[in-house]
Each structure stands twice: as C-alpha cells, then as structure tokens.
Design a protein that fits this description.
heterodimer; A: alpha/beta; TIM Barrel; globular; B: alpha/beta; eight-stranded parallel beta barrel
Chain lengths: 325, 302
C-alpha cells in the first residue's frame, strides 16, 4: 500500500519525502483547495521546484484542486488545473463535476483522483465518476467500515485511497454547510471550515469560552485543555443534557487497521493534515512508514504513540469499526 | 415563478404525513410536490402504504408529482431501492445523491438541493445529461445563483426559499446517539421531534436542529422579501420545505408575492405569525453567515 502524505509548505513536502512518503499531496495558495489557510500552500514556482525534488526521490506529487469552483470565476480553477498539469503533477485531486469534466476533456490522459470532498460513498457513485471522467482513484469518505470498503473494491474498477490518520469530518465530506451557516465561509466554497478569522476566545468567570462567529462552541474549565472550536466538535445542549452532541474531539488513528485495509485491497493510505507542523508530518509519516515496513515483513503491527500529534489527544479507529451502528 | 414543495424531511407519523399531503393537494397553490423519504431509508416502509393515495390525490389536485431519492445512499438495500426508483415510469425523479444519477442519463430528471452545484459548468454538465430543473444548494450566494441561471436559460433554476435549512448529512444518527441507542436499533426516536430536535449553545442560543442523520439550521429560511432579486437573477422556482406550521398558509403568502398581490416585506411579517417563535434567516443569499437575516436588496437600495 502507498503512503500518501500532506504538505502545506515546500518545507513540509521535503520533510514528508525524507520521512518515507510514496506520494505527497498539496495545493495552490488560493481558494482552489480545501485547506485555504493563511500562510499555507504553494506558489506556481514552489510547486515546480517541489515536484522536481520529489521526482528526484521517486516520490509522486498529487495536487488538490478540490473546492467547488465559484460561479463566474471558473478561470481561477481552470488555471489551477492547467498549471498543475504543466508543472508535472502525477495526479489531480478533484471534486467538482464541472472541473472533472474540464480536466477530462482538456487534459485527457492526465491521472485524475476523486477527492473525498466528492463524498463518493458507494460503488454506484464511484462507477459514475470512473465511467464519465476516467477517474483512476477514489479517496473514500471516512464513513465506511473495512467490510464495506472491501465490498466497494470488489465492485469497482478503480484504485482506492483511505484516510488512516488525522482530523475526522463528522458529517459526509463536501456535503456540509455548518461552517458557512455560522461564518459565511465553507469548505466547499472558500476551502475553509470554522475559519480562525471568525474564532474568539473569551475569559468568563475563570472559564474559557470559545466562539465561532456569533455562536459559543465550547466552554472549558480551568483544568481543561481548550480544543480549537471546529463547529461539529463543540459542546452543546439539548433537552437530553449537555455534551459533545455530534462527536468528541477525537482524531483518527487507524494504524491497527492496516492489515484489514490491505486484505480489503486498498491501494493507498492517506494522512490528513496539510495545515499541521513539520514535526507532525515527520512523526506521523515515519511511524506509518515503520508500520508498513513491519506489515510487509509479516511482523506484528504495533501502534506507535502518536496521541501528542492529535487534536484532543485522543484517537479513534473511526468508522473502520462501527460501534454506533 | 413556480412554487415547489420539497419533501417532508422529518419523521412524521404516517397518518399525519398522508393528511398533510392530502391538504396540500386540495388547498396549496404550489406547482410541484416532491414526495418520498429522502433522509433515512429506515423510515420509508412506514410511508410506503400511503404513497399511492398521496400521489393520486396530488395529481388530482393538479400538482406535478416528483419522487425524491435518498440524500445519502450507503447500504446494499438502499442501492436496490434507488435502482427500483430509476425504473419507475411516469414521474420525474429528483436526484439527491450523485450515486443515483447514472440511470437517468438522457432522461428528464430534477437535481435536488443536496447535489453540489456551485457553478455554471457543473449545472451545464448536469443539464446536458437531462436535468431540466436544478434546486441549488442553500449556501449559494445571489451572485452565483444569477450566473448559473443566466447561463442556462432552458433549465429551471430553483432556490430554497422557506424552511429549516438542511446543512449536513452524516452516516451516523444523532438522534440515536443522544438517546444512547445504536443506529440499527434506533426505535425511531426521531419521530418524537416532528420539527427537529433543537441543539442550543452552552449560553442558551438556538443553533441547530437534529433530524436523525441530518443536521438543519435552527433558523428558518425566509426569502419572501428577496423575490424581486431572485426573479431578476433568473430564478424560475422557489422551494418551500415542510415544517409543522401551516404550509398551506405559507404557500399562499409566497404565491401572493410571486403574483404581485403582496409586498415581500409584508409577507415576511405575515409568515412570522404563521410560524411563531421562529427566527428567520436569508444570510446565505448575501454571502453573510447563513444564520443571519439581511434586509432585502430592494429595501436596502431605496
């Protein structure tokens, strides 16, 4: 199985390559990719240099153009696609039907991957993208169990990539407007979720209140670590009590699931976190490279302690083992 | 402009559901009605027995009947249901999940607000495969709506104009989670909340609603004051999404605005008494947070 690693900056890309990535994914410094955060991402020139470096190490570079193009401004997204192809990207990661159509016509032969933002969660959806646009690989939504992944793989003529580490969307990816409801900015449109520009922390009676736009997302006691106010991971109240209504602030760590994912026929394993530090990239990529090496050698798979790398310092194997079904 | 009544998103008692549609058929001035359980496949069997009578009554009432697909198709059983839906003749289907799209190639169909249509290229791609009506995602701003509508004059562009706004769909059931149940053994607890289960912030502000696997806004979309702006953008249909308030009265108010018999701002005020204790919002239309209510373009420009 290939190890696909995030890079928010050229320096992070070098770190990922040195730490054992088979491929690195990144995006341009604008709204065309779903990690459009200040100080992050690549200029055209940086991408060219990064691809040359990665290729010299036999590492692939996948370029994410995975937001949904703004009406009336298609040329921004078209240029991102054209420039990524021109720079020698090994694959484009796309979600928007209009952009898939453009890329398939304009750059026939270019390898296209379907972004998780397209939320293709079953064989019928995947087959549609494969047959219509020639998509070669689909990044599966983080909602499927290993059994379900195996069934999808049996049904489709397409490679699959699954997330094994990092932040977890609680909702179906690419089908969520919670962020724009509170802030006016969404992953689909602006490439941001719960943007830092709309976050405020306030002290109140010795407690720390985190707010997103006009809404309180969490309140922390003196001894609690204050998590970032990602909207779906906040504490709210209903008539049935107060707590993490949608999801605890946990991160995915599917290291122990790797044997099952390999047996299911998964092509590639993806690490989330283009917005994370070089230390994160280095630590997580090295740990997963070690695990994969052990797996290939038939040795037992041990879970490295990466809890310090995760949001909320707790991890889950996510939907790969569905306890809530 | 046409009026479309969207599908009932909540888990209503089957008789309540049937009687709701009977009254819509007889009294509501809407042109199209989308029927079918789109949120949770587990609810569908309870409605199936009433479906033929509901469809018959709607047709007799002069309404165009549109069958809605599921919003999130995952299980083999759900894929089979969608394949059967694609074989149903005589009615238009509204696609709510792209996994349902393939069998409709070259056949007229509608695209629902759960499909990501953010630009004219995607809309043109779908129209080219047979979509003759597209209800745009609720988070789209007016500028995008205008560009899409004007680039596709032969496709009916529809906008979500009234109702709690569907914001997210999940594989996981939050009603079940809150009741400490599993999804497979949920006891249909979502039926206890026919207008959604309110989720409040820790300081007590209304925020969201839970409807099983779906999350909606606590505010109710109300674009009655924005009809002129929508019309001049090229929008040809408005969607009203069923709530527990008097939806016939809602439809009549919107109809009066569309027909020029009532001012939009006046309809906004009247809707507040039809659906009391509910905050209205139209922020998405103006690129503001969706939870906000922005005074209409026409008023602001005066």
């Amino acid at each position: 199985m290939e190890l696909i690693c995030p890079a928010g900056t050229p320096a992070a890309l070098r770190v990922a390559v040195e730490a054992g990535a088979d491929a690195v994914y990144c995006g341009f410094r604008d709204e065309t990719n779903a990690r459009n955060f200040p100080g992050l991402n690549f200029s055209r020139e940086e991408l060219r240099t990064a691809i040359a470096f990665a290729h010299s190490r036999k590492v692939k570079v996948l370029v994410a153009v995975n937001t949904f193009a703004r009406a009336g401004a298609l040329e921004i997204w078209h240029r991102a696609i054209d420039d990524a192809v021109d720079a020698g990207a090994d694959a484009l990661i796309l979600a928007d039907l209009g952009l898939l159509d453009y890329a398939a016509r304009r750059h026939s032969g270019q390898r296209l991957h379907l972004s998780v933002q397209a939320a293709a969660a079953n064989a019928d959806a995947i087959r549609f993208y494969v047959e219509t646009f020639g998509v070669r690989r689909v990044v599966l939504p983080r909602v499927l169990s290993i059994t379900e992944i195996a069934a999808v793989i049996r049904d489709v003529a397409c490679e699959t990539e699954v997330f094994v580490f990092g932040g977890l969307c609680v909702m179906a990816e690419g089908r969520c407007s919670l962020s724009s409801y509170a802030t006016g900015q969404s992953p689909n449109m602006q490439g941001v979720c719960s943007p830092a520009s709309h976050v405020k922390y306030q002290e109140s009676d010795g407690r720390l209140v985190s707010r997103l736009g006009d809404f309180t997302i969490n309140v922390f006691g003196k001894d609690e670590a204050a998590a970032y106010p990602t909207l779906c991971k906040g504490r709210f109240s209903t008539t049935f009590g107060t707590g993490y209504t949608f999801e605890e602030p946990v991160s995915l760590d599917a290291a122990t699931m790797l044997p099952g994912l390999r047996a299911a026929g998964v092509t590639a394993l993806k690490i989330e976190g283009r917005q994370r530090s070089r230390a994160y990239i280095e630590g997580v990529v090295r740990a997963f490279r070690r695990t994969l090496t052990a797996l290939d050698a038939g040795e037992p798979v041990e879970r490295a302690d990466l809890s310090a790398m995760t949001e909320g310092q707790t991890t889950t194997v996510g939907a790969y083992r569905k306890t809530w079904r | 402009m046409r009026l479309t009544l969207g599908p009932v998103l909540f888990n209503w008692q089957p008789e309540t559901w049937r009687d709701f549609y009977f009254r819509i058929a007889d009294e509501a001035p809407v042109d199209s009605v989308v029927v079918g359980e789109v949120v949770c496949s587990k609810r569908a069997p309870f409605l199936a027995g009433h479906m033929p009578a509901v469809i018959e009554r709607l047709v007799a009432g002069g309404k165009e009947v549109v069958l809605g697909s599921l919003v999130l198709v995952s299980l083999p059983r759900e894929r089979r249901q969608m394949a059967e839906l694609a074989e149903a003749d005589g009615f238009l289907t509204e696609i709510e999940d792209l996994s349902c799209l393939a069998p409709y190639a070259g056949r007229p169909h509608a695209i629902g607000p759960f499909i990501n249509v953010y630009n004219e290229a995607t809309a043109a791609f779908l129209a080219g495969r047979g979509a003759n009506r597209i209800c745009l995602p609720p988070e789209l701003p007016l500028g995008s709506i205008r560009t899409i509508a004007q680039s596709l004059p032969d496709t009916t562009i529809e906008v979500f104009a009234f109702g709690k706004v569907p914001l997210a769909i999940s594989a996981r059931c939050y009603h079940a989670r809150i009741h400490k149940l599993t999804k497979d053994n949920c006891r249909f607890v979502c039926g206890q909340d026919p207008d959604g289960l309110p989720v409040r912030t820790l300081d007590g502000a209304g925020f969201l609603l839970i409807n099983g696997v779906q999350t909606l806004s606590d505010t109710c979309a109300n674009l009655a004051g924005d009809v002129d702006a929508l019309r001049s953008a090229g929008v040809r249909a408005l969607r009203l999404s069923p709530q527990t308030c008097d939806m016939v009265a809602v439809a009549k108010l919107f109809r009066e605005v569309l027909d020029g018999r009532r001012e939009g701002e006046d309809a906004v005020r009247a809707l507040a008494s039809v659906y009391p204790q509910t905050a209205f919002a139209n922020g998405f239309l103006y690129g503001s947070p969706g939870a906000q209510f922005v005074r209409s373009m026409t008023l602001r420009s005066q």
